[in-house]
């Protein structure tokens, strides 16, 4: 899937930079689900992780390379510091990919050189040359990033990029690491690189930026006008601090305003050819999947994929849209895959029809997952007469959450009312298979449920976010609950969907607690292994 020279290359880093967002940690199976959807979306490159960071990151990069990195699929990339071990590990993880890329980086701003690296400019130049060449010895496709390029001395930046390209870098990425630059400044940086790096014609200019000032997308679009041809972005704009440039916003800006951007790519102004390889009808589905798996909710007024992005409440707007959508809409909701709430199935529908509809919606489930999803569908269908596509998506996304199955909710019962004391009784099955029941009172039914669960599980935590959203309209709508727990400095998310919001709340809480419990167990086992190793060494 090599992009045409006159197209913008979309480099998705949701699984690397996006996952660094507090609370958005994904396990290997969840990363694989997202990677498959990114391939359907049509991204050119998937940065699958930072292979050397942990065994889990290595496994994720390796499995994505094996499963998604097919000859007709996207390029699979792993990040690596300009260090031999990082590059070796990345190369090993990427071996199964038909089109592997190693993305290596080193900081170039004076503030990073002085306080972080404690190295001189000449040392950084030498490391750049050596490590890019080393990465090139493993793969043909090497990307180099001068970290904090936005705050680097331009003359030194030109030198580093020239050295990296001469050593074999095929893409040079210009990161606005701290989201500091403005569009005019960022455009000028790209223009300066085009004019002052002698061998720049041998590499593609890429951009990477954070949204600390809310300017990431604007910066990228200005970069395109000045010669950038690869955009590094994430689904829903998730990422460290204020996040990254949002893929959906960039793609749709380039699509809706292609006549404006055509000349910058050497095309006729009136060309209708797409500027990216993205299948825009997969955008909304991808956004929902990433939101559900990471626990990072999309704000209602978020551009392109927010719940209000195509909603009109003003009477003047409603009147105009009813007469002609173009009066107040610059794109069709169906263009991003946001179809009408079509009623498709009911409680009498069979497994074959259910599976066929899921395939039409883009879900490819293994036999076991399909069976679980079908059982959930039947449970919901008994409560709701009509099941919409959005309901189906909620059911399937809920079933494919891959939180460790440790504690399980067996029973939730609440008593509450205007003059009653909210009381909850819960029964949980423990990881050892024992059933434990406890009860608690709270300020409301959900608070009571959570207090009862905490008495059973007995794992200290702080609930920092609780959110409920309705999947569809109507009194019988499925409710989606997303929560985030804090333990120390780590954040764990949980998600569940059910027609009973109290049950969904309990299941979401257990989902998050299971993630926390699994992390504590893993930490405990690692500590024991380290202790045994130390004891053996002392002997």
From TrEMBL:
Catalyzes the condensation of the acetyl group of acetyl-CoA with 3-methyl-2-oxobutanoate (2-ketoisovalerate) to form 3-carboxy-3-hydroxy-4-methylpentanoate (2-isopropylmalate). Mn(2+) binds at residues 17, 208, 210, 244. This is 2-isopropylmalate synthase. Pathway: Amino-acid biosynthesis; L-leucine biosynthesis; L-leucine from 3-methyl-2-oxobutanoate: step 1/4. It catalyses: 3-methyl-2-oxobutanoate + acetyl-CoA + H2O = (2S)-2-isopropylmalate + CoA + H(+). Belongs to the alpha-IPM synthase/homocitrate synthase family. LeuA type 1 subfamily. Residues 408-539 are annotated as: Regulatory domain. Homodimer. It holds the Pfam family HCS_D2. The keyword Metal-binding applies.
């Amino acid at each position: 899937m090599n992009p045409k020279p006159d197209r913008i290359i979309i480099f998705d880093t949701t699984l690397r930079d996006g996952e660094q967002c507090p609370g958005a940690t994904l396990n290997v199976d969840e990363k694989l689900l997202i990677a498959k959807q990114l391939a359907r979306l049509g991204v050119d490159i998937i940065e699958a992780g930072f292979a050397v960071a942990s065994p889990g990151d290595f496994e994720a990069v390796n499995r994505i390379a094996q499963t998604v990195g097919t000859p007709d699929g996207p390029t699979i990339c792993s990040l690596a510091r300009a260090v031999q071990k990082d590059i070796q590990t990345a190369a090993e993880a990427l071996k199964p990919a038909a089109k592997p890329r190693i993305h290596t980086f080193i900081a170039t701003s004076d503030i990073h050189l002085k306080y972080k690296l404690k190295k001189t400019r000449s040392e950084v130049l030498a490391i750049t040359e050596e490590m890019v060449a080393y990465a090139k010895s493993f793969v043909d496709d090497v990307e180099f990033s001068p970290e904090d390029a936005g705050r680097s001395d331009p003359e030194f930046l030109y030198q580093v990029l020239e050295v990296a390209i001469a050593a074999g870098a095929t893409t040079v990425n210009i990161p606005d690491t701290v989201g500091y630059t403005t569009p005019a400044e960022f455009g000028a940086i790209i223009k300066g690189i085009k004019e002052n790096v002698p061998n720049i014609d041998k590499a593609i200019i890429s951009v990477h930026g954070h949204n600390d000032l809310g300017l990431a997308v604007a910066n990228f679009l200005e970069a395109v006008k000045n010669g950038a041809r690869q955009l590094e972005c994430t689904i829903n704009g998730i990422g460290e601090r204020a996040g990254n440039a949002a893929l959906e916003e960039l793609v749709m800006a380039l699509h809706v305003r292609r006549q404006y951007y055509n000349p910058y790519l050497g095309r006729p102004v009136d060309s209708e050819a797409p500027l990216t390889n993205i299948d825009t009808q997969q955008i909304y589905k991808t956004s929902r999947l990433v939101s559900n798996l990471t626990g990072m909710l999309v704000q209602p007024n978020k551009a392109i994929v927010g719940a209000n992005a195509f909603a009109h409440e003003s009477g003047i707007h409603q009147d105009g849209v009813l007469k002609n959508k173009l009066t107040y809409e610059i794109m069709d909701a169906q263009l991003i895959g946001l179809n009408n709430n079509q009623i498709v199935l009911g409680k009498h529908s069979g497994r074959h029809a259910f599976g066929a509809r899921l395939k039409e919606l883009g879900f490819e489930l293994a036999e076991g997952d399909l069976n679980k999803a079908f059982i959930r569908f039947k449970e919901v269908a008994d409560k709701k007469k009509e099941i919409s596509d959005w309901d189906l998506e909620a059911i399937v996304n809920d079933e494919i959450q891959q939180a460790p199955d440790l504690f399980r909710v067996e029973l939730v019962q609440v008593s509450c009312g205007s003059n009653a004391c909210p009381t909850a009784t819960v029964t949980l099955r423990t990881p050892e298979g024992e059933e434990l029941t406890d009860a608690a009172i709270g300020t409301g039914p959900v608070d009571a449920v959570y207090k009862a669960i905490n008495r059973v599980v007995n794992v200290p935590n702080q609930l920092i976010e609780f959110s409920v959203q309705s999947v569809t309209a109507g009194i019988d709508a499925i409710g989606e609950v997303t929560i985030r727990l804090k333990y120390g400095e780590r954040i764990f998310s949980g998600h569940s969907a059910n027609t009973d919001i109290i049950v969904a709340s309990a299941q979401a809480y257990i989902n998050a607690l299971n993630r926390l419990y699994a992390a504590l167990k893993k930490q405990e086992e690692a500590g024991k292994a380290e202790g045994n190793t130390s004891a053996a060494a002392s002997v």
